Each structure stands twice: as C-alpha cells, then as structure tokens.
Amino acid sequence: MSDIRNIVILTGAGISAESGLRTFRAEDGLWEDHPVEEVATPEGFARNPDLVQRFYDERRAGILAAHPNAAHEALGRLDAEWSGELLIVTQNIDDLHERGGARRVLHMHGEGLSVWCQSCDARHRWTGTLRDSPSCPACGEVAMRPDIVWFGEMPYRMPEIFAAIARADMFVSIGTSGAVYPAAGFVQEANLAGARTLELNLEESLGSRNFDETRLGEASELVPAWIEEVLG
Ligand code: APR
Q1: Strand partners, 200
Q2: What EC designation does it have (predicted)?
Q3: What is the DSSP letter of 208?
Q4: Atom of ligand 1 at shortest distance to CA of 11?
C-alpha cells in the first residue's frame, strides 16, 4: 500500500443496508414499493407532486432515524488519518458518511436532508416535511422539491469526480450494483488512469469483471478490514 497516495471511493445503497435503509434493486424492482419512474423522475413529480413529496418525507424521516454502521465509521477513520488525497463519492442521499465522521464526501445524487427551491434556486437543510407545502425561507414562494438527482437529471459535480479519478492510485467501490451510469462507469475511468481497483460488495455486481479484485461480504466487515490494511 506504500505506493498509494490518492484514493477515490464510490459508495452505494449497500453500505447503508446494515443501518436499516433499503437498497434499490431488490428482486421486485420496486423502491420502497413504488416503481422508480413514479417517484424518481421529473415526470413522476409533475404528474403527482403530492405522492413524491410524501415519498421523500418518509425517506427523510428514515434517514434521521438511522445510525451509521461500522463501514461508515471505518471510512470516517480513514478520512481522519489519511494524509493523501481522498474523495468519497456517494450515490446515497443519507448523511451516514458525515455522521460516521467522514468530511471529504461528495453526494452525486443529492441529499435527503436538503431541499431546493424551484423559484429562487436556494437550497436549505430540511428535517421536516414538504407535503404540507411550506414556503421557501429565502423567497417565500411555495416551490420547494427534494434536492435529489432523479433519473434523466444530471448528477452533481461530475467534473470534480472525474478529475479526482484521473489522479487516483486506488479506486474502491462499496455496496453498489453497477446498474446506474455515470457512477457505474467510474471503474473504467480508474482503470484508464492506472489506478488499482477494488470492489467490496455483498454479491458479484454487473461491473465486477472490471475490477482488479472483488471481495464478497457485508460492508460492515469488509470495509473496516480493508481500511485496517490501508492504515496498517
Ligand atoms: N454489504 C455490502 N453490499 C451490500 C450489502 C451489504 N450489507 N447489502 C446489499 N449490498 C449490495 C447489493 O448486493 C447490491 O449489489 O449493494 C448493492 C446495492 O445496489 P442498488 O440497490 O442497485 O443500489 P445502488 O447501486 O446504490 O443504486 C444506484 O440507483 O435508483 C438509483 O439513484 C439511485 O443512487 C441510486 C442508484
């Protein structure tokens, strides 16, 4: 590990599964009992805003009730102790990385505890509900939506992510199925950059063959063990 300075880590729903937050691609193909196009697209929101606001109100309450697990905490330790570059890119909308102590975190699919005003473009930290149509604290309009990147929308801060991958010596993917682009393509970018690539996941994913190494198991065991290897 002595040749490694710059690390990029991609996390997905699997890292929060042991904190009680459900992953997306269960066998029934539903997200918390809804088809994704109903609750995770701009068209779904336009068709039935009340349903979508209620859906994310529930997700927000679920995030607030969850606790970081050993995998989040181990990444918090890595962030505190790693003197090289580190970027934890998460597809998750929960704040369990931050509560696990990590600081160098980028939420490419938005954040469940953030809301976005469609009238004045302000974002606000939000722990309450939106189904009761609160007005924006900045402009007073009733125009706030969840600050979530839906299917068909552009993930956040992509240039920053690709720049970090281009500099990476090591790329690690944790708890993601590799089903959703652009995140699913990061491993190929990392391979092009000459980084070592490691996957930590419960089961083989769609992208497993693109990694130098895949370790199968629960994130709460695999992640602390890997971080112990890195920090020695
Ligand atoms: N430890 C490690 N991996 C786990 C665990 C666990 N305890 N539990 C589940 N997994 C793995 C599953 O085997 C699966 O491969 O985590 C992966 C979760 O995959 P998805 O449910 O598809 O979640 P994710 O890859 O994060 O989804 C990507 O899809 O719907 C969109 O925007 C949403 O960010 C999300 C994106």
Answers
A1: 174, 215
A2: 2.3.1.286
A3: G
A4: 26
Dihedral sign (CA 207, 214, 167, 78): positive
**Closest Cα to residue 91, out of 14, 39, 187?**
14
**Taking the CB of residue 109, how many other CB atoms lie within 10 A of it?**
21
Contact in structure between 227 and 75 (CB atoms under 8 Å)? yes
The residue whose two tokens read 């679920």 is 62
Residue positions annotated with a catalytic role: 109
Cross-strand pairs, 31: 34
Q: Whose CA is nearest to atom 21 of ligand 1?
A: 24
* Rounded Cα distance, 146 and 148, in Å: 5
Q: What is the pTM of this model?
A: 0.97
Q: Is 19 in the pocket of ligand 1 (CB under 6 A)?
A: no
Tell the burial category of 41 from Cβ atoms under 10 Å away from its Cβ (0-12, 13-18, 19+): middle
Q: Give 127-144 pLDDT, tens digit per residue.
A: 999 999 999 999 999 999
Is pLDDT of 164 > 90?
A: yes
Answer yes or no: is pLDDT of 163 > 80: yes
Tell me if 110 CB under 6 Å of ligand 1.
no
